[in-house]
Structures are given as structure tokens and as C-alpha cells.
């Protein structure tokens, strides 16, 4: 029942037409996938993070590949994948492609009894697009043009979105501010099919650990998601980086639009091994629904 209820959240957000309601349902599925983010979406970094903020930090690698898999608890039973590829293009910046899909499984049809008929109801959304990012006067800017399709049983709708983002470090790496649109397709500040992200990060403490410049850094973060037709979401957390090899992130998120809501913890761990970065994250869940997980691998070829 929670799977069906989750879907109905997207269908009931005051959308004026069936198509816009279905678009909202697709974005709701992506919000479920975002519950495994251990940083505010606006501040997320990495090749796969271009899905949340197109303005990713410029990288010296000639090729970046990333893949992430997401699994929610059985009470929700949503799964997702994100795949990206980025390459540098002289004077243009970095360009790449993004693919992502989130769907609900094990939903079967019934007739006049609660017993399933054996026919599965397809419920999923996917996106495929191209991404560009570049550093201009010290600010990372980016844009993503993407095609989306959302299917609920026999009905499917599609749309194009254009997202923009920016990220800038201030006073070295003492502060970083970032903002981005997410699945933006209408000039509205009250559309449940899209979000606006913003975030700020501050370096709270650092200490050198070697003569080679390695250090331990602790940062505090705050993020907000709004302009989506219901109360804003808030994210508050911190991250620790050890010699640019191991990272640990902890986030407390509060989703709007769910009555009073509650703060939900998310933890993430990252490990850099040569040209690979391995990341895992776990959402503790709310209301005894169970935990959601995300596992990702990013490869950088120089």
C-alpha cells in the first residue's frame, strides 16, 4: 500500500491536467531516489551528480564515467539507476550524456477481489539528456537538456526539460554556494513536476596530516528545495574529508508536504582508489518503512 500511496502523492499535487499530474508523479519517483543523497542536491559533486546540479566542478580527466544503483525498502520497492559520461572539449568546457530510470516493481492488477490477476502494472520514469558545464570567472555553470517519459500502466507522457545550475567557491574553499533547477519545464514557482535547489557549504575545521599538503577537512552544509507546489524541503548536514581519500557525509533531511514531517538521517561513505571512486549511502527511513540504499562507482581516465 505504501507503494501505491507514494505514487498518489505525485498524482494529487494540484496538477490541473492528467498529463501534468503524471509528470508530477514521475518527479515524485525521482524525489524518492534523492532520499539516498547524503549532501543537499545543489551541493552534490561528481559525474553522476550532474543529474541534480548541471554545474559540476571542472576535472582534468579526459573521460569520466559514473554509474549509481538505488534500492528502496520492500515497503516501497522502487529501484533506480543513473549513468553518466563526461569529456572535456577545448574552449567549450565539459560535455556529456545522462541517463536515469526509476520505477516501482511488483504492482499487479486486481479485479473485484484483492487477489492479483498475475498481470504486472508498469510504473516508471526515465530521462535521457545532454549536459554542459564550464568555469566562467571562477564560477562553475552548467545546463542539461533532457527528454523524460513517465508511464503509469497503459498511459505515458513525455516532455523536455532545460535545467541550469551554478556553483562558486568563496575565499579559497572557506565557503561554497550553489543553486540549480531540477526538471524545469514551466515558468512557474508552484509546479510539483519540478524543483529549485539551493545550498551553502562552510569549512568548519581543517588540520594538516602530512608535509605533502594532505589534510583533514570538516564542512557544514545547508540546503533547501522549493518552488514545487508544497512546503519547502530542508537539508542540514556535515562532511569530513581525510586526505582526499576517504569522505564521510551525514545529512538530516525534512521533506515538506507530508503533514508536520520529521527529520530523516542519511549517511554516505566515499573511497578513492586510483582512478576509481566508490560511494555507498544509506537512508534510515521514516515511519518504520525501512532503509534505502545507493551504491555508485565513478572512473576517471586521464
* Unreliable residue runs: 1-6, 8-16
Report the count of strand segments: 16
Oligomer: single chain
SSE-based structural type: mainly beta
Q: How many domains comprise the coordinates?
A: 1
Largest sheet: 14 strands, antiparallel, barrel
String of helices and strands: HHEEEEEEEEEEEEEEEE
Beta-strand proportion = over 45%
Could you tell me the mean pLDDT?
A: 88
Account of the 3D structure:
The protein has helices at residues 2-11, 18-33, and strands at 63-71, 78-89, 93-104, 108-110, 116-120, 123-136, 139-152, 155-170, 175-182, 195-208, 215-226, 233-242, 246-254, 263-273, 276-283, 292-301. Mean pLDDT is 88; it is low at 1-6 and 8-16. The chain has two helices and 16 strands. It has one domain (2-301): Beta Barrel (Porin), CATH 2.40.160.40. It has a 14-stranded antiparallel barrel. The protein is mainly beta and 302 residues long.
Features:
mainly beta; globular; disordered N terminus; 14-stranded antiparallel β-barrel; Porin; 302 residues
Brief synopsis:
9% of the residues lie in helices and 55% in strands.
Please render the helix and strand layout as text.
Elements: H1 2-11, H2 18-33, E1 63-71, E2 78-89, E3 93-104, E4 108-110, E5 116-120, E6 123-136, E7 139-152, E8 155-170, E9 175-182, E10 195-208, E11 215-226, E12 233-242, E13 246-254, E14 263-273, E15 276-283, E16 292-301
Antiparallel strand pairs: 1-2, 1-16, 2-3, 3-6, 4-5, 6-7, 7-8, 8-9, 9-10, 10-11, 11-12, 12-13, 13-14, 14-15, 15-16
Helix pairs in contact: 1-2
